[in-house]
Amino acid sequence: MKQHQPLNVRWVPGTSNRLIVTHQESEKEVPLQKFEDVCGRQATFPLYLQGKTTLDLPRKQLEQLGI
Fold this sequence. Notes:
Layout lengths: L3 E8 L6 E6 L2 E6 H8 L5 H6 L1 E7 H6 L3
Antiparallel strand pairs: 1-2, 1-4, 2-3
């Protein structure tokens, strides 16, 4: 069983192609395209509706995002 870890995601204010991803104590800015490539386009749907989302991702995906 893979261990998943929570990742909080929100838009960089004033942008439509940059995201702020927060995991534990670290925060990083990630391009929307990279986020979609790693997590899938469906992971962005809550962002468009609510402006933020929380995902439970395996360690490998977190590493792909640079977290």
